[in-house]
Structure prediction request, 86 residues.
Amino acid sequence: MSIVQHHMLDAYRAAQRGEAAPPPPGTVDPHPIRTYREWRRFRSLIAQLTPPADGDDRRGGGVRPHRPAPADGRTPGRSRGAPTRG
Prediction:
């Protein structure tokens, strides 16, 4: 269902109930869109000004977290049947 069809249905329901019709699509949209754009600009500015935290791979060069070795002595990340390169 398109936005226009949805608005027509809402207007019909409002008329059946004796309520005021909802505003047409697009008349109240600019404020939330403008607010979201400002928030995105603010977040990008903050990301540029702050150094990356340890382990933060989003900006590259992060430190990988330490994973302890399994109790049975295997190498982490390999299955028992995986052949080793030699």
About this structure: The helical segments are 3-17, 30-49. The CA atoms of residues 14 and 20 lie 6 Å apart. The chain has a mean pLDDT of 76.
